[in-house]
Write a structure and sequence with these properties.
The chain is 50% helix and 23% strand. With 349 residues, it is an alpha+beta fold. Helix 5 runs antiparallel to helix 6. Strand 7 (275-282) and strand 8 form a beta hairpin. It is built from 10 helices and 10 strands. The structure holds adenosine-5'-triphosphate and magnesium ion. The site of magnesium ion (MG) has 4 residues, from helix 9.
Length: 349
């Protein structure tokens, strides 16, 4: 035999009162008709204070735009994104952030008001912001350190190696006729090894912080890595510049360069591509950097942050750098077709 299961009004009342999310209902003018215990905690007002109060007391004028937009969309039957974020002014004067879902109250076929469910995400949001700030500081500190090490390698370590090569040359040329053949070969070997060490050191310093970026700017530096891909890895790589070129701050140039450097290093290491294209496009109020390849593509996880736990930090680093510049980044990849990374960064007015 089938058992009918129905919630009585009393059951609903219990759910409403004891839900851990704040809930309240207000009429078309914004006068609160009912609110639960969690709403007391969220707003700082008691239930008695809340009932009859107008929502503009905690959704003050400065935060009301978002709420009005939601109201308008609901009334016009447009879809709204649930849940959305909304700021509120608590009774103690502190501004909080909540995640809200809103729907219409319809009685007898008529719209009579709005009901809301809200979760306090203030602490979470603050933690996220602190984390972002921290990541920003670390990224900047890392760049400063790289610059310092690159400069030291270049200025302090390269000259003694150069001197050593010159001294080996002069010893060999002065004493050449008198030298035994095996010693001549040994000196020649030694000279080649020092040249090789110097070459490694220069490459390492360039990777840490390419001088070309500081001296000649982003476009020259992008061309430099593209040439390296073509010359040393057989990938046909090009740089295209479109739109009217704006001057970019040193920080924007550096972070965009790091994004391209990582994307191109991924192409070199993972893509098995024969072609790579870097495009820097200047638009009215933003600059768009796109790096694409015709390689094997990959499945990007739906939450790219999960890559971090497997020690893969490249893609996340690109997202963070774009965000540091107030911009955004998109990665699109299709198996067998290739991958495209696009960073968009706003330009100052
Ligand atoms: N252009 C690409 N083509 C094919 N696969 C790619 C491409 N870019 C990234 N991937 C895949 O995505 C994964 C994550 O990339 P990510 O740059 O985050 O990490 P990684 O390159 O493996 O390591 P890290 O950058 O930290 O040295 C790579 O391991 C690779 O499997
Ligand atoms: Mg990588």
């Amino acid at each position: 035999m089938e058992t009918r299961f129905e919630l009585t009004e009393q059951n609903y009342r219990y759910l409403f009162d004891n839900a851990s999310d704040a809930m309240w209902v207000h009429d078309m003018e914004g006068n609160i008709l009912d609110a639960n215990k969690a709403c007391e905690k969220l707003t700082g007002y008691t239930r008695d204070e809340l009932v009859g109060m107008n929502i503009t007391r905690f959704l003050t004028e400065e935060f009301l735009d978002a709420a009005r937009e939601v109201k308008r969309k609901l009334l016009e039957g447009e879809a709204i994104e649930q849940s959305y974020e909304q700021r509120l002014l608590r009774k103690d004067g502190i501004i909080g952030i909540m995640k809200m879902a809103t729907s219409l109250v319809i009685i007898g076929g008529e719209i009579r008001g709005f009901q809301h469910i809200a979760r306090d995400v203030t602490t979470e949001k603050q933690m996220q912001e602190n984390m972002r700030f921290y990541v920003g500081q670390i990224t900047r500190a890392q760049e400063d350190e790289r610059k310092l090490i690159a400069r030291q390698l270049h200025d302090d370590m390269a000259p003694p190696l150069l001197l050593l090569i010159q001294r080996l040359d002069s010893v060999t040329s002065r004493t050449r006729p008198k030298l035994h053949n095996s010693l001549k070969d040994a000196l020649e070997d030694l000279r080649n090894q020092v040249i090789e060490a110097l070459e490694y050191l220069r490459r390492f310093a360039q990777d840490l912080r390419p001088r070309i970026l500081d001296d000649l700017g982003l476009i020259a530096a992008l061309e430099w890595i593209a040439e390296d891909l073509a010359k040393n890895y057989g990938i046909d790589a090009h740089v295209e510049v479109a739109g009217i070129e704006h001057s970019l701050s040193a920080e924007v140039q550096l972070l965009l360069f790091r994004i391209a450097q990582e994307a191109l290093s991924n192409i070199r290491r993972h893509a098995k591509a024969s072609m790579a294209e870097v495009e820097l496009k200047f638009e009215n109020n933003k600059v768009r950097l796109s790096i694409s390849d015709n390689g094997k593509g990959f499945d990007l996880p739906s939450h790219p942050e999960s890559l971090a736990s497997t020690g893969k930090l490249g893609i996340i680093g690109m997202y963070e750098r774009a965000r540091l510049l107030g911009g955004s980044l998109k990665v699109q990849s299709e198996l067998g077709k290739g991958t495209q990374v696009v960073a968009e960064v706003p330009l100052p007015e």
